[in-house]
Amino acid sequence: MNTYTGLMKSSESGVGVVARAGAVLRAVGTAEPEGLSTTEVARLSGIARPTAHRLLSALFDEGFVDRDPRTGVWSLGPELYLLGMSAANRYDITDHANDVLRVLARETGESSFLSARRGDETVCLASQEGSFPLRSHVLHEGVRFPLGVASAGLAILSHMPEREIDDYFRRTDLTAQWGADHAEAPVRTRIATTRRHGYAVNPALLVEGSWGMGAAVFDRWGQPAWALSLTGVETRFKAVRRRELGRLLLEQAHVLSTRLNSVAGR
């Protein structure tokens, strides 16, 4: 019996083990390629250190994580790479989005990003730097935010069905990490504004002076599965220009949605 099977037969439910293992893998993934110590993994995943260590050891046995024998630091393992190659055939849309990102960056001078919904979070998949010399560094490839925090996640959350939004708020408290601006009431106000305009705006709620705007990209079932976004310094996001940036985001989001639906329908 390997370590993972042993864990599955422990007093913890199998579903609970899988959820904790997923949290551990996501924590390790946030620090690639530097890696994390066991203590850091436990803190980021919200799991007690002994449990985190047992899960990491089990994942190591299966090849899902690696451990540096000198430093004890954990990093993602080779088995995830092989699985990722298989999953990329279905989920990696960056090849379809690269020219859209270039258009956004060229036309605006701001940095452009593609993010994907992964459960209750968004993860940044790809980016294109703009020509304007001052940049916001809130977003980068691989970074994750809960839905409703960054502009991409707000755009996606705003276009989800009401029942799913209600369920999200029942299980999520954004204020613990992100502060009072991310309580349910103000986030719902931003959802209403996003629905009215079509695009989402994050007015420097994550980092002072750093603004973001996002537009949802829809899958073939009409669900908001991805988002395009622009980030930059506050002086570049005045009201008149926001309308221009929003129009361009919506245009390119429509282009990408149509393209992806066409590919999926083949």
UniProtKB/TrEMBL annotation:
The keyword Kinase does not apply. Residues 79-262 form the IclR-ED domain. Pfam families: HTH_IclR, IclR_C. InterPro entries: GAF-like_dom_sf (IPR029016), HTH_MetabolicPath_Reg (IPR050707), Tscrpt_reg_IclR_C (IPR014757), Tscrpt_reg_IclR_N (IPR005471), WH-like_DNA-bd_sf (IPR036388), WH_DNA-bd_sf (IPR036390). Residues 15-78 form the HTH iclR-type domain. It comes from the Bacteria. GO terms for biological process: negative regulation of DNA-templated transcription. Keywords: DNA-binding, Transcription, Transcription regulation. GO terms for molecular function: DNA binding; DNA-binding transcription factor activity. PROSITE patterns: HTH_ICLR, ICLR_ED. The keyword Transcription regulation applies. This is Putative IclR family transcriptional regulator. The lineage of its organism: Bacteria, Bacillati, Actinomycetota, Actinomycetes, Mycobacteriales.
